[in-house]
Specification:
It is a single chain. The chain is mostly helical. The chain has helices at about 1-15, 15-25, 30-40, 50-65. Helix 1 packs across helix 2 (about 15-25). It starts with a helix and ends with a helix.
Length: about 70
Protein backbone atom coordinates (compact mmCIF):
# COMPACT_ATOMS: atom_id res chain seq x y z
CA UNK A 1 0.00 0.00 0.00
CA UNK A 2 2.74 2.59 0.67
CA UNK A 3 3.83 2.79 -2.98
CA UNK A 4 0.23 3.46 -4.04
CA UNK A 5 0.08 6.14 -1.34
CA UNK A 6 3.21 7.74 -2.71
CA UNK A 7 1.79 7.87 -6.24
CA UNK A 8 -1.49 9.30 -4.93
CA UNK A 9 0.41 11.94 -2.95
CA UNK A 10 2.51 12.84 -5.99
CA UNK A 11 -0.65 13.39 -8.02
CA UNK A 12 -2.11 15.51 -5.22
CA UNK A 13 1.03 17.65 -4.97
CA UNK A 14 1.10 18.09 -8.76
CA UNK A 15 -2.46 19.40 -8.62
CA UNK A 16 -2.03 21.60 -5.53
CA UNK A 17 0.41 24.50 -5.93
CA UNK A 18 0.13 25.47 -2.26
CA UNK A 19 1.07 21.98 -1.14
CA UNK A 20 3.94 21.86 -3.64
CA UNK A 21 5.29 25.15 -2.32
CA UNK A 22 4.96 23.93 1.26
CA UNK A 23 7.07 20.87 0.46
CA UNK A 24 9.69 22.91 -1.39
CA UNK A 25 10.38 24.88 1.80
CA UNK A 26 11.08 21.79 3.92
CA UNK A 27 14.70 21.29 4.97
CA UNK A 28 16.24 18.16 3.42
CA UNK A 29 16.83 16.50 6.78
CA UNK A 30 13.11 16.87 7.63
CA UNK A 31 11.70 16.09 4.20
CA UNK A 32 10.74 12.42 4.67
CA UNK A 33 9.13 13.06 8.06
CA UNK A 34 7.18 16.05 6.71
CA UNK A 35 6.01 14.12 3.64
CA UNK A 36 4.78 11.28 5.84
CA UNK A 37 2.97 13.71 8.15
CA UNK A 38 1.23 15.46 5.25
CA UNK A 39 0.40 12.14 3.61
CA UNK A 40 -1.25 10.83 6.77
CA UNK A 41 -3.25 14.05 7.15
CA UNK A 42 -4.52 13.49 3.60
CA UNK A 43 -5.30 9.82 4.23
CA UNK A 44 -2.35 8.26 2.38
CA UNK A 45 -0.26 5.44 3.81
CA UNK A 46 3.50 5.96 3.36
CA UNK A 47 6.62 4.41 4.79
CA UNK A 48 9.78 6.44 5.38
CA UNK A 49 11.79 3.94 3.35
CA UNK A 50 9.53 4.53 0.33
CA UNK A 51 9.93 8.30 0.59
CA UNK A 52 13.71 8.04 0.94
CA UNK A 53 13.87 5.58 -1.97
CA UNK A 54 11.82 7.90 -4.18
CA UNK A 55 14.08 10.85 -3.34
CA UNK A 56 17.16 8.76 -4.11
CA UNK A 57 15.74 7.53 -7.42
CA UNK A 58 14.83 11.10 -8.36
CA UNK A 59 18.34 12.33 -7.65
CA UNK A 60 19.84 9.47 -9.66
CA UNK A 61 17.53 10.16 -12.61
CA UNK A 62 18.43 13.86 -12.50
CA UNK A 63 22.16 13.09 -12.45
CA UNK A 64 21.88 10.55 -15.27
CA UNK A 65 20.25 13.17 -17.50
CA UNK A 66 23.54 15.05 -17.54
CA UNK A 67 25.79 12.03 -18.01
CA UNK A 68 24.18 10.45 -21.05
Amino acid sequence: MPKEGLEALRARVAADLTLARQLRRVAPERFAAEVILIARELGYDLAEADVNDAVSRGRTAWTMRWIA
